[in-house]
Amino acid sequence: MARDDLLDENTLDPVYHAKTRVVNNAIQDIGMGRYQYYLFVCAGFGWFADSVWPLINGLILAPVIAEFHFNGPFLSLAANIGLLVGAIVWGFGSDVWGRRWSFNLTLLIAGVFGLSAGGSPNFLTLASLLAVVGVGVGGNMPVDSAVFLDSVPASHQYLLTVMSVWWSLGQLLISLVAWPLIANFSCQISAATCSKADNMGWRYLLYTLGALTLVLSVIRFFAFNLLESPRFLVGVGQDERAVDVIHQIAAYNSTTTNLSVEDLRNIDEKYASKEGRSLLSQTSVFTTTHIKALFSTPKMALSTSLLITIWGIIGLASTLYNSFLPFLLASRGAKFDDASLYITYRNQVILSVIGVPGAFLAGWAVELPFVGRRGTLAISSGLTGAFLFASSTARSSVQLLGWNCGYTFFSNIMYGVMYAISPEIFPAKDRGTGNALVSTATRVFGVIAPVIALYADLSTSVPVYISGALIIFAGFLTLLLPFEPRGKSSM
User: Fold this and answer.
1) Domain range enclosing 100
2) CATH number, domain at 481?
3) At what angle do helices 397-425 and 140-151 cross, to 10 degrees?
4) For residues 76 and 56, what is the distance between their CA atoms, to the nearest angstrom?
5) 3 belongs to a structural domain
6) Which of 417, 423, 459, 473 would you label with 435, given CA atoms 20 to 30 Å apart?
7) Considering its fold, how many domains does the chain have in total?
8) In this predicted model, what pLDDT tens digit does every residue of 418-473 receive, in sequence order?
9) What is the pTM of this model?
């Protein structure tokens, strides 16, 4: 299926645009095959990690506070600082040293330090180790979305939205594991003292998740040979390697391609004769080149600015709400005489199950005419905010759970589209940098959210109202994006 280009020569370096079009056509001719399906699984591990590790801070919060006696938001603050550092380092770095090392190292770091966190003797050690876990986890989304999109045919770009099913499955798995461990191996909320021996549940949870993350890292490194992104290679002038990667993907898929190095060199000669020089930058060092490219034209600058704003707003609202959701459910449950750890974590499992079908609905909705990515993101954001508002009306734990089911369902759609539309809009040669910018925005506000929680009264509905209003506003901003990726080839 032929598709128009999302970005044109007025937006991109014309040499890069021409070469990427040739590469896109070659990948489309190869089609969706074994390599891309394996990549869907291995890149999905990044969505999984991005889901479970930030969520675990809320899942272990109550028993950790009972044992170490600290102000709860400080744990989320430490973890989000790590996520911020990870987004910056791995996102920007993937446009400099390539995607492969970033892709393989992020999960390894998360697994090693996550496993170590289970043995923490005090709060300072736990917070420090979870911050380092965040450094690894924070790089998963900026890198893995770029890795997948760089290698998938344009006809299957919607799968980047469906990729969020891994995010939902991660929520479900960690909730299922946390439910028996926290409920059966933790001090009671009302206990006056809480010793390590009576409170091993959260440690078992960290051991389990750390070990699982290490297994996923080993699968990535040894069971799947990730090839460097051909679009990244074209962007730094390594045409021969880009063509070689395309041929390796074709062989992996048991097919062939007619792409040759001469096809790309002819483009250089064409533009060199026009301009007297080749326009394509052939540098891969840390400079401001990639950032400037994302603001090089009015439409690109508007798009980048809006995406950064949207991610920042949703990052603030969602982190403020999600980081303390188990705590909120427990505290509200106490008010409704329904505050047992068993009920709290049972409800968390129910919420996680609700999110799974949202990924598939999102993948269908983004391909609808007149709706597309922007419409789906705007609608799901509006409904997410609406259910947040509605949750403040709950007069029983069952009502609160019901409203949160609606919130979880639509927020998973919102995140699925948000994680896809940004990489699709950013050109591949600057995609890691663009992903780093938006991820940094959401992580910066993720750091601010616990600070707000330190001084906010979580027993009132004010934080809920603020979160809901912010998410609805972000949905409105989505409609102002100048590019709609539906039906277009990402460049």
Assistant:
1) 32-223+287-489
2) 1.20.1250.20
3) 50
4) 10
5) no
6) 473
7) 1
8) 989 999 999 888 888 899 899 989 888 877 877 776 676 656 666 777 888 999 99
9) 0.85
